[in-house]
């Protein structure tokens, strides 16, 4: 018991006493135990909070064969378009030159 009284007196002696003429200032509020940490992403240049959107990442690379199987039905299909020349009547593809635009036989055109 005597040791406890000695320790109490020693602790009281080390605490500085404030003069009674000074007004009492309330202590600052305690810091929160858990603060939301921000993550700095180098590409964005700004701090990103904890509600950052995460994207799905594939586990393995998709091979060219598998990609081709998946995208095959999306390819454009060739449409067979055949038109007749207005001058000579021969079958040709659109936007292709057939004759010089003269009516009649294209082989008889003037040279």
From TrEMBL:
Does this entry carry the keyword Ribonucleoprotein? yes
Instruction: Give the primary localization class.
Output: mitochondrion
User: What Pfam family does this protein match (any one)?
Assistant: Ribosomal_L32p
Give the domain of life. Eukaryota
Its subcellular locations are: Mitochondrion
State the InterPro entries in the record: Mitoribosomal_protein_bL32, Ribosomal_bL32, Ribosomal_zn-bd
Q: What cellular-component terms does GO give this entry?
A: mitochondrion; ribonucleoprotein complex; ribosome
* The keyword Ribosomal protein belongs to this UniProt entry's keyword annotation: yes
Q: Report keywords, A-Z.
A: Mitochondrion, Ribonucleoprotein, Ribosomal protein, Transit peptide
The record, for SUPFAM superfamilies, names:
Zn-binding ribosomal proteins
Q: Which family does it belong to?
A: Belongs to the bacterial ribosomal protein bL32 family.
Q: Which NCBIfam families match?
A: rpmF_bact (TIGR01031)
Tell me what this protein is called. Large ribosomal subunit protein bL32m
What organism does the record attribute this protein to? Urochloa decumbens
């Amino acid at each position: 018991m005597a040791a406890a009284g000695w320790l109490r007196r020693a602790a009281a002696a080390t605490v500085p006493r404030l003069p009674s003429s000074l007004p009492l200032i309330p202590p600052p509020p305690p810091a929160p135990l858990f603060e939301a940490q921000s993550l700095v992403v180098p590409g964005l240049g700004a701090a990103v909070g904890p509600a950052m959107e995460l994207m799905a990442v594939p586990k393995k690379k998709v091979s060219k064969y598998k990609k081709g199987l998946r995208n095959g039905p999306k390819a454009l299909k060739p449409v067979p378009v055949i038109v007749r020349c207005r001058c000579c009547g021969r079958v040709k593809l659109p936007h292709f030159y057939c004759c010089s635009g003269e009516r009649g036989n294209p082989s008889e055109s003037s040279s």
